[in-house]
Structures are given as C-alpha cells and as structure tokens.
Design a protein that fits this description.
Elements lengths: L7 H18 L9 H12 L14 E4 L13 E2 L9 E4 L3 E4 L4 E3 L1 E4 L2 E17 L3 E15 L3 E3 L3 E10 L3 E2 L4 E4 L4 E4 L2 E4 L2 E4 L2 E4 L2 E4 L3 E4 L2 E4 L8 E4 L2 E4 L4 E5 L1 E3 L2 E4 L3 E5 L3 E3 L2 E4 L4 E4 L3 E3 L4 E4 L2 E4 L6 E2 L2 E4 L2 E4 L6 E3 L3 E8 L3 E3 L3 E10 L3 E10 L4 E4 L2 E10 L2 E4 L2 E5 L2 E4 L2 E4 L8 E4 L2 E4 L4 E5 L1 E3 L2 E4 L3 E5 L3 E3 L2 E4 L4 E4 L3 E3 L4 E4 L2 E4 L6 E2 L2 E4 L2 E4 L6 E3 L3 E8 L3 E3 L3 E10 L3 E10 L4 E4 L4 E8 L2 E4 L13
Parallel strand pairs: 1-3, 3-6, 4-7, 5-7, 6-7, 7-8, 8-9, 8-10, 9-11, 10-12, 10-13, 11-14, 12-15, 13-16, 14-17, 15-18, 16-19, 18-20, 19-21, 20-23, 21-24, 22-25, 24-27, 25-28, 26-29, 27-30, 28-31, 29-32, 30-33, 31-34, 32-35, 34-36, 35-37, 36-38, 37-39, 38-39, 38-40, 39-41, 40-42, 41-43, ...
Antiparallel strand pairs: 1-2
Helix pairs in contact: 1-2
C-alpha cells in the first residue's frame, strides 16, 4: 500500500501508461504520431473535475506547514504531503513564510497572516480568499478573482487581477502595486485602506471611503466613483473617471489626463494641488468643486450644463476651454482664480476671492458680485443683454467692460481698475474708486445716498435721478451730457473739463467744490442752485451761460465767458476773476457784507446792497 500513487498527477501518468500497454497488445489500432499526448489528454480529462464530468476527482486543498523549509516546491512543507498543482487550492496562514523560486499555477489561494517571496510568479486561475490578517506578497501574482473583506494585501510584488476584484474591507499596502487588468471588473465598498499603488486598466466601481491614506491610483480604464471620499497622495486619470451618484465625493491630489464625467452629485478636488490636461464634463444638476489649487492646462476643458464652484484658499488657473452653461461660483478669503484663456461664463456668482489672469472673461447672462474681486492684466466683459448686481465691498484692479446692464450698490475697497461702460450702469450707492470710468453708454445715479466716481470720462449720457453724484479721485474730461433731476445734485469735487460738446442740465443742483480748477466749455442749463466753494482754485466758464441761482462761498467764477445770474445770488467768499464778465439780472438782489475778490467785469442790472470793506482785489471793478 505504501507504493500506491499519492497524487493526482501520478494517477494520470499510470492511467496513460496502462492505455499505452493495451494499445501495444492490439497493434491494428492506430492513433497516429500524437499517441502519447492523446493518451495524456484523455487521462487528464478523465481525472479532472468539471461540470461536464462531475464524477472526476476534484483538486486537493494543501495547507502550508513549513515543516521542512520555506521551499514552496518541497512536498514535506504541505499537508497532505505534496505540492499544489493547477487544480489545487493552497492555504497559507498562521504567519507562514513560503519561498516561490519558480513560476507555478494553482486554482485557488486562501491566506491569513503570511508571506510569499521569491523569484517566481504565482498564477491563480481561481480566487484569493482572505480570512483575516495581512498577506505579504513579495512575488508577482496573477489572480482571476481577488476577495478582500477584512484582511490586507502587502509586499513588494505586483498583484494583477485578471477577472474580478471584490474589495469590501481591509486594505492594500507595501511597496508593490495592485493592477486591475484590461477586461477585468471590480467593486470597492465600505471603508478601506490604500497605502500602495493601484493601477486600473479595467472597470472599477467605487462606493467606499478610504480611511487610511495615502496611496497612488492610476486609472487607465473606467473608474466609476459612486460615493465616499478618496484621500490619497495622488489620483492620475488617463482613462475615464465617472462620478455617478447624488452624494458628495472628494478626491485628493487629482490629475486628469483623460476624461472625467460628473453625471450626478458633487465631485470635489481637495486635499492637495493637482494638474489636469484632460476634459471635465459636468452634467445638468451636478456640480464640480475645485477646493484646492489646481492647474487646468491649455489642453484641458471644462464643459457641460452643470455648475462649477471655485472655493477655499486656493489659486487655481484655467488655461484651456471653459464652456460651462450652468452657474460658476467663486468664494474664499485668500487666493484667486486665474483665467489665462478667453472664456465665456453664462452665470457667475462671486462672494470671495475672484477673477484674475490674462484672459478675457465674458459674462453672457448674469453676474452676482458681493465680495472678492477682479484683478490681473486681463479684462471682464458684461455682454450685451447680460445683467449684473454688484453689492457690498469689492475689489477692482482690472478692466471691466460693460455692454449690458449693471446695478451697482457697492463700495470698491481696493482700486484701481478701469471701467468702460457701453451699456447701462445704474449707480445706486457706494464709492467707485477706479483709475478710470469711461462712459459711452448710460450712467444712472438712482440711489438716495452719495455716490462717488473717480476719474469719470463721460462721452455719452449721465442721468442723476436722485441723491448726490460726485466726481472725485482724479482729473478727467467729459464730452457728453449730465442730466440732473429735481432734488438730485452733481458734485464736482475734483478738476474736471467739460468740453465744448458737453452739457449740464436739469432741475437739480450742481456744486463745484474742493481744491479744483474745473472748466465748463459747453452748455450749462441747470435750473436749480449752483454752488461754488473751496479755498484753492476756480471754475472757468468759457461759454456764455445763465445760472438762475448761484451761491459762492469760496473759489468762484473764472473764464472768458459771460455768466448771467437771473434769480438769486449769494456771495460770501471767494471771488470772480478772468477776462469774461458776470451779469446780475434785474430780478436779483445781492446783499454783500463779506470781503470778496473781484478781478473781473461785473454788470449789475439788479440790486446790490454793499456793506463790505472791500469789493476788489485788482483788475476791473463792477460797472
């Protein structure tokens, strides 16, 4: 009995040898030149368990004992005695250590705490099933199915899954890597740990949350992210990355060189900075959040009907195509979002940080701007037909061109940009400090508060419907019209040149004030009160004008035009100088008790009650 065959391979061999002996006895039977291989195949078929041959012997389960050595191929290291073959299952646990010195193939592998090392490759046509602990593979492994539930994969070898990865718990670590081969599928669920490289060439579905970081994932196939955060040191996508469920999914240090499809929920780039050269498509109802600095290169694209949110303390840059038709959000309190390519954004909401870069950003539908700023050498364009609301304190250090309609309630807290208005700009309140405001459209002042605009050049129409509209900050020139409604006022508090094509008109008031030397060369038909004040400068009227009501408390009239005062005149300071003349109409009564300066011709057709000590500072006294 001791000489009986003890392994399936010995039985197959003896069976084939018996057949050969039978054939030798009956020589008329011919099997051609492939006789021995044919016999071996027949024997192998007979002694192989299969669905079509259920009565054939099944594979043997060999359990590692390591009783003799660490040699995988030493039969004395296994129980029962023998070496696992292509139809067998090997079980290594209890901190067993096996050396695989050459390639071998088995059907299945069961592992616990163990280590397999060596120069060989372990080929597993069935599955690896782990019952707990960590299996350290310091060999390369090719396995059809890898099941991980509560155990781990470690080591320096490459684990290649050729058919199915079923990862429901445990983790992967070590200096090696795990590869999901082309054509393979897999699912990753529950909380798992990744501390090694995972390369996917197949199709993976991810429902999990990585609670132990930080590994590297390289996706060359399809990766469907259905939920959970992905904290790792790097995720590089060269294939197709899909976000498909309605939850929020965060990926750290993400670089996309392929295709990202955000079909539902929120997909968030976080953790660490990254660079992308590929495409991001955001479906309607979905959102793409960029909450860490990210560089979208000039070959990248962000498209789709969904929304995009740039947020956090970041300085992301968009250098490629940006054709998002949903809403783009910008928020945060440190950083900026750099657009170095020309892009069109239909709907933009800025509550913090804001736009920078060299490109032109065109708002096609609506801008809601309540914080943050716009900076950089590029420009922002509000397209014709688009609208904008600008509220709260904002920063403008960039060119803004408006062809649409802007309602402005804000105060610019950091200057100085340039605003070119070709459409409608409704200034409802707050200061507008800029290096230049060039109006070629319609500028409306409609709030009841005081609004100041720096360096305004008006080449079209300014409508001051209510409150006080003040020209300040820096000198400028206007060729267009200023219409001042009853109860409203225009304050000219910085030097301004109203050209000969300009006009100032309306039932409201005008105040020339400050240390200025403004000049009026065009039409001036204001029927309210004109005020002149200040202690350095003067207001030159170089065209003939009629002022119904004039109050001079400082500075005063200059220029070569004739200024006619037709109703009321109060003069308590300042003066009148220049080559022109001033005419007091017949209905005017001037009670003059203060010392004033007159170095100009004064024609009086009304009444002057003069009790002052001095009514001249050189030049021509009144006539």
């Amino acid at each position: 009995m001791k000489n009986l065959p003890t392994s399936r391979h010995q039985v197959v061999f003896l069976f084939a040898l018996s057949l050969f002996a039978i054939i030798a006895i009956f020589p008329p039977i011919s099997y051609g030149n492939g006789l021995w291989p044919t016999l071996m195949a027949l024997a192998e078929t007979h002694f192989t368990a299969s669905p079509t041959n259920p009565n054939s012997p099944a594979g043997v389960t060999y359990t590692w004992t390591g009783a003799v050595s660490a040699d995988w191929f030493n039969a004395g290291n296994w129980s029962p005695n023998g070496v696992p073959g292509a139809l067998d299952m090997a079980v290594i646990a209890n901190e067993g250590v096996a050396e695989l010195s050459a390639d071998t193939t088995i059907a299945n592998l069961g592992v616990g705490d163990c280590r397999i090392y060596g120069a060989g490759t372990l080929n597993i046509t069935g599955a690896i099933s782990a019952g707990g602990g960590t299996a350290q593979y310091d060999v390369n492994v090719n396995v059809a199915t890898l099941n991980l539930a509560s155990s781990g994969v470690s080591g320096g070898g490459t684990m290649t899954v050729t058919t199915l990865l079923n990862w429901t718990g445990g983790g992967m670590g070590g200096t090696g890597k795990t590869v999901v081969a082309a054509g393979a599928t897999g699912s990753i669920t529950n909380s798992i740990g990744l501390l090694r490289q995972l390369d996917n060439y197949g199709s993976l579905e991810y429902f999990a949350g990585i609670n132990t970081c930080c590994g590297v994932i390289n996706n060359y196939g399809s990766f469907n992210h259905k939920g959970g955060n992905f904290q790792n040191f790097g995720f590089t996508n060269t294939g197709t990355f899909i976000k498909s469920d309605a939850t929020t999914s965060e990926v750290w240090a993400f670089s996309n060189n392929g295709t990202v499809q955000i079909n539902a929920g929120i997909f968030q780039l976080g953790g660490l900075s990254g660079t992308s050269t590929g495409s991001f498509t955001v479906a309607a109802g979905a959102m793409f959040k960029v909450s860490r600095s990210h560089n979208f290169t000039n070959t990248s694209s962000i498209t789709g009907a969904g929304d995009v949110s740039f947020e956090g303390q970041t300085a992301s840059s968009v250098n490629g195509a940006y054709t998002v038709t949903g809403v783009t959000y910008m928020s945060g309190n440190s950083g900026e979002y750099i657009f170095n390519s020309n892009v069109t954004i239909p709907n933009l909401v800025i509550t913090g940080n804001g736009i920078s870069g060299t490109g032109t950003v065109t708002i096609a539908n609506h801008l809601e701007w309540s914080g943050g700023g716009m900076v950089g050498p590029g420009k922002t364009v509000i397209a014709a037909g688009a609208t904008a609301n600008i509220t709260n304190g904002i920063a403008l250090i960039r060119q803004l061109d408006n062809y649409g309609s802007i309602d402005y309630f804000a105060g610019i807290t950091a200057c100085c940009g340039v605003i070119n208005n070709y459409g409608s700009f409704n200034h409802k309140g707050g200061n507008l400090q800029s290096l230049g405001f060039n109006n070629t459209g319609t500028l409306i002042k409609s709030g009841t508060v005081t609004s100041e605009v720096w360096a305004l050049t008006n080449n079209s129409t300014v409508q001051i419907n209510s409150g006080i509209f003040q020209l300040g900050g820096a000198s400028s020139t206007s060729t267009g019209s200023f219409a001042i409604a009853a109860g409203a006022r225009l304050n000219v508090s910085h030097t301004h040149n109203f050209a000969n094509t300009s006009s100032i008109n309306g039932e409201g008031d005008v105040s020339f004030e400050g240390q200025t030397a403004s000049s009026v060369n065009g039409a001036y038909t204001v029927t309210g009160v004109t005020y002149m004040s200040g202690n350095s400068g003067g207001y030159s009227f170089n065209s003939d004008v009629t002022i119904p009501n004039l109050v001079i408390t400082g500075n005063g009239i200059m220029g070569n035009g004739t200024v006619t005062i037709s109703k009321t005149f109060t003069w308590t300071g300042g003066g009148m100088i220049g080559s022109g003349k001033t005419v007091i109409g017949e209905d005017v009564v001037l009670n003059q008790s203060n010392v004033v300066c007159l170095s100009r011709r004064l024609d009086n057709y009304g009444t002057i009650n003069f009790t002052a000590a001095n009514f001249s500072c050189g030049g021509t006294p009144f006539v």
